[in-house]
Design a protein that fits this description.
By secondary structure, the chain is α+β, with helices and mostly antiparallel strands. Helix content is 29%, strand content 30%.
Length: 160
Protein backbone atom coordinates (compact mmCIF):
# COMPACT_ATOMS: atom_id res chain seq x y z
CA UNK A 1 0.00 0.00 0.00
CA UNK A 2 1.30 3.46 -0.93
CA UNK A 3 1.25 5.68 2.17
CA UNK A 4 2.47 8.86 0.44
CA UNK A 5 -0.15 11.59 0.77
CA UNK A 6 -0.22 13.49 -2.51
CA UNK A 7 -2.71 16.21 -1.53
CA UNK A 8 0.07 18.21 0.15
CA UNK A 9 3.01 20.12 -1.31
CA UNK A 10 6.55 20.13 0.11
CA UNK A 11 5.59 22.90 2.55
CA UNK A 12 2.58 20.95 3.85
CA UNK A 13 -0.04 23.03 2.06
CA UNK A 14 -3.17 21.34 0.77
CA UNK A 15 -3.18 21.17 -3.04
CA UNK A 16 -5.27 19.64 -5.78
CA UNK A 17 -3.29 16.80 -7.35
CA UNK A 18 -2.10 17.56 -10.88
CA UNK A 19 -3.48 14.77 -13.09
CA UNK A 20 -2.71 16.58 -16.35
CA UNK A 21 0.02 14.18 -17.43
CA UNK A 22 -1.83 10.98 -16.58
CA UNK A 23 -3.33 8.71 -19.20
CA UNK A 24 -7.08 8.58 -19.61
CA UNK A 25 -8.19 5.08 -18.65
CA UNK A 26 -11.47 3.43 -17.74
CA UNK A 27 -12.01 3.55 -14.00
CA UNK A 28 -14.77 1.87 -12.04
CA UNK A 29 -15.49 2.07 -8.32
CA UNK A 30 -18.09 0.26 -6.24
CA UNK A 31 -18.98 1.39 -2.71
CA UNK A 32 -21.58 0.11 -0.30
CA UNK A 33 -23.16 0.83 3.04
CA UNK A 34 -26.13 -0.10 5.16
CA UNK A 35 -28.89 1.58 7.10
CA UNK A 36 -30.23 -0.38 10.05
CA UNK A 37 -33.90 0.35 10.74
CA UNK A 38 -36.80 -0.75 12.93
CA UNK A 39 -39.19 -3.44 11.73
CA UNK A 40 -41.79 -0.74 11.09
CA UNK A 41 -39.45 1.26 8.85
CA UNK A 42 -38.26 -1.89 7.09
CA UNK A 43 -41.86 -2.87 6.31
CA UNK A 44 -42.68 0.62 5.02
CA UNK A 45 -39.67 0.60 2.68
CA UNK A 46 -40.28 -2.94 1.48
CA UNK A 47 -44.01 -2.45 0.88
CA UNK A 48 -43.68 1.04 -0.56
CA UNK A 49 -46.14 2.37 2.03
CA UNK A 50 -44.03 5.29 3.30
CA UNK A 51 -46.06 8.51 3.31
CA UNK A 52 -43.22 10.21 1.43
CA UNK A 53 -43.45 7.78 -1.47
CA UNK A 54 -40.92 5.49 -3.16
CA UNK A 55 -38.06 5.61 -0.65
CA UNK A 56 -35.57 3.60 -2.69
CA UNK A 57 -36.44 5.35 -5.95
CA UNK A 58 -35.79 8.75 -4.40
CA UNK A 59 -32.61 7.45 -2.70
CA UNK A 60 -31.39 6.17 -6.09
CA UNK A 61 -31.83 9.59 -7.70
CA UNK A 62 -30.20 11.31 -4.70
CA UNK A 63 -27.18 8.99 -4.94
CA UNK A 64 -26.75 9.64 -8.66
CA UNK A 65 -26.99 13.38 -8.07
CA UNK A 66 -24.43 13.10 -5.27
CA UNK A 67 -21.95 11.26 -7.48
CA UNK A 68 -22.24 14.01 -10.09
CA UNK A 69 -21.63 16.74 -7.49
CA UNK A 70 -18.84 15.12 -5.45
CA UNK A 71 -16.23 17.73 -6.40
CA UNK A 72 -18.52 20.46 -5.03
CA UNK A 73 -18.58 18.82 -1.60
CA UNK A 74 -15.19 17.13 -1.12
CA UNK A 75 -12.29 19.62 -1.07
CA UNK A 76 -9.57 19.01 -3.69
CA UNK A 77 -11.69 16.41 -5.52
CA UNK A 78 -11.55 16.76 -9.31
CA UNK A 79 -14.78 17.28 -11.25
CA UNK A 80 -15.14 14.19 -13.43
CA UNK A 81 -17.10 13.33 -16.56
CA UNK A 82 -19.02 10.31 -15.30
CA UNK A 83 -20.06 7.82 -17.95
CA UNK A 84 -22.17 5.68 -15.61
CA UNK A 85 -23.65 5.71 -12.13
CA UNK A 86 -26.05 3.17 -10.69
CA UNK A 87 -27.39 2.44 -7.24
CA UNK A 88 -28.79 -0.93 -6.27
CA UNK A 89 -30.49 -1.87 -3.04
CA UNK A 90 -30.69 -5.13 -1.12
CA UNK A 91 -33.35 -5.63 1.54
CA UNK A 92 -31.67 -7.53 4.38
CA UNK A 93 -34.55 -8.93 6.40
CA UNK A 94 -32.41 -10.76 8.99
CA UNK A 95 -30.54 -7.54 9.80
CA UNK A 96 -33.57 -5.23 9.42
CA UNK A 97 -31.37 -3.23 7.10
CA UNK A 98 -31.11 -1.90 3.59
CA UNK A 99 -27.79 -2.20 1.77
CA UNK A 100 -26.92 0.23 -1.00
CA UNK A 101 -24.36 -0.58 -3.71
CA UNK A 102 -23.14 2.38 -5.77
CA UNK A 103 -21.24 1.78 -9.01
CA UNK A 104 -19.57 4.69 -10.79
CA UNK A 105 -17.57 4.69 -14.03
CA UNK A 106 -15.50 7.18 -16.02
CA UNK A 107 -12.72 7.26 -18.56
CA UNK A 108 -10.44 9.88 -17.10
CA UNK A 109 -7.10 10.61 -15.45
CA UNK A 110 -8.25 9.97 -11.89
CA UNK A 111 -10.49 7.48 -10.14
CA UNK A 112 -14.10 7.56 -9.00
CA UNK A 113 -13.78 6.13 -5.50
CA UNK A 114 -15.01 9.34 -3.85
CA UNK A 115 -17.96 9.55 -6.23
CA UNK A 116 -19.04 5.99 -5.35
CA UNK A 117 -18.62 6.57 -1.60
CA UNK A 118 -20.47 9.89 -1.80
CA UNK A 119 -23.32 8.31 -3.79
CA UNK A 120 -23.73 5.47 -1.27
CA UNK A 121 -23.62 7.86 1.70
CA UNK A 122 -26.19 10.28 0.28
CA UNK A 123 -28.51 7.44 -0.71
CA UNK A 124 -28.43 6.18 2.88
CA UNK A 125 -29.02 9.68 4.24
CA UNK A 126 -31.99 10.02 1.89
CA UNK A 127 -33.51 6.81 3.23
CA UNK A 128 -33.10 8.24 6.72
CA UNK A 129 -34.73 11.52 5.70
CA UNK A 130 -37.67 9.82 4.05
CA UNK A 131 -38.31 7.48 7.00
CA UNK A 132 -37.51 9.64 10.04
CA UNK A 133 -41.21 10.45 10.57
CA UNK A 134 -41.78 6.73 11.23
CA UNK A 135 -38.78 6.23 13.53
CA UNK A 136 -35.63 8.30 14.02
CA UNK A 137 -33.66 5.40 15.55
CA UNK A 138 -31.87 4.43 12.33
CA UNK A 139 -28.14 3.80 12.11
CA UNK A 140 -25.95 4.23 9.05
CA UNK A 141 -22.81 2.12 8.84
CA UNK A 142 -20.38 -0.12 7.03
CA UNK A 143 -19.82 2.51 4.31
CA UNK A 144 -16.73 1.44 2.41
CA UNK A 145 -15.10 0.95 -0.96
CA UNK A 146 -15.90 -2.54 -2.24
CA UNK A 147 -13.66 -2.42 -5.30
CA UNK A 148 -12.00 -0.21 -7.83
CA UNK A 149 -10.29 -0.83 -11.14
CA UNK A 150 -8.13 1.19 -13.46
CA UNK A 151 -5.43 3.75 -12.95
CA UNK A 152 -1.81 3.62 -11.86
CA UNK A 153 -2.53 2.02 -8.48
CA UNK A 154 -4.30 -0.91 -10.15
CA UNK A 155 -7.22 -2.92 -8.92
CA UNK A 156 -8.50 -3.14 -5.35
CA UNK A 157 -11.02 -5.45 -3.74
CA UNK A 158 -12.10 -5.04 -0.13
CA UNK A 159 -11.36 -8.16 1.89
CA UNK A 160 -12.66 -8.64 5.42
Amino acid sequence: MNSKLNHFDAAGNAVMVDVGGKNLTERIAVASGKIFVSNEVYSAIESGSSKKGDVLGVARIAGIMAAKKTSEVIPLCHPLPLSHCSLDFEMLHDESAVKVIATVKTTWATGVEMEALHAASVALLTIYDMCKAIDKRMTLGEIHLESKSGGKSGDFTFAR
